[in-house]
């Protein structure tokens, strides 16, 4: 008989235990702004303009959006966030969130920075994963041409070989360091090329344990089957499948491109279909946990509760190393901190990088919070409730 876990995402005392009254007040103003679509959009545009005009706004950004959603400008800057999260049982993924500039020099610089995150992760139980985006290491246009079956020029062939080498170098570094590495999902029109690189690394480094993880965007209507196919291939070839599940981040872009180029959109018809497939994927991973590892990257309360129930149903310890919950730094603390308080493995993605170069990341966070129905409202409501709770308690 299934026993429901004793966990509530409404426990605000646990959710905001790491926040001082001043920090909570700052969160209030940030989410009040993000809860207003016009104000959020205008704020991002003004920040972009200020950086373009070389105005000195770094200090303002560090006290507002950047300071809330990022750990700092460097790995060293992130140490305070890593330690603070660890105090409450929440682990960290150092996420270098600077987008590539499209040349070999920037790709090499990104690879070297990610190597530093792997080195920092080695031997530290509070930083169990490293992460990277393949487009930070090479040209997505070349990956697109490969997926479309187009012939590469000799120059493109050389560039792609360099990309392959960088991906392998990072995966090997994680393997040698005894840590795990997550590879982000990206656009559908070159994801299959990306997958080839990831599964090649899995076959090489996931023989004894799960080191390399691929990411599955469940807002794609074919992704549940792709996950199952990938698992079957892993079984056939004798390696562990590392699966990070997310709902997805590029929906409008995907639909617009499909419409423009006249092909069937890969995106689910509605949110209910995405939710259904996400939960089905969680169940599939748990059914096959002996041959898979799972990172559930979700801000959805139902999906997180479902996973806690499945952990209980399959008789696993809450902190079984094969199962992790993941959320973004600065968001859904009611989920992350309550899960950690109950003994589950929880990681926060802690982005970092120079303020002006992390602006695209911050823009996406603002867009997601305003476009996902109720996301910023939910965060804002919880902050207001906690402020009221503290006021009553202190009176």
Kindly describe this structure.
By secondary structure, the chain is of the alpha/beta class. Helices cover about 55% and strands about 10% of the residues. Strands 1-8-7-6-5-4-3-2 form an eight-stranded parallel β-sheet. Helix 13 (about 270-285) packs parallel to helix 14. The protein starts with 11 loop residues before the first helix and ends with a helix.
List the helices and strands and how they pair.
Elements: H1 12-15, H2 21-34, H3 37-52, H4 58-63, H5 65-69, H6 75-87, E1 91-96, H7 104-121, E2 129-132, H8 140-147, H9 154-177, E3 180-183, H10 188-205, E4 212-217, H11 223-237, E5 241-246, H12 251-261, H13 271-287, E6 292-297, H14 301-313, E7 323-328, H15 333-341, E8 346-352, H16 359-371, H17 375-394
Parallel strand pairs: 1-8, 2-3, 3-4, 4-5, 5-6, 6-7, 7-8
Helix pairs in contact: 2-17, 3-16, 7-9, 8-10, 9-10, 11-13, 13-14
Question: In a nutshell, what does this entry contain?
Answer:
57% of the residues lie in helices and 11% in strands. The protein contains 17 helices and 8 strands.
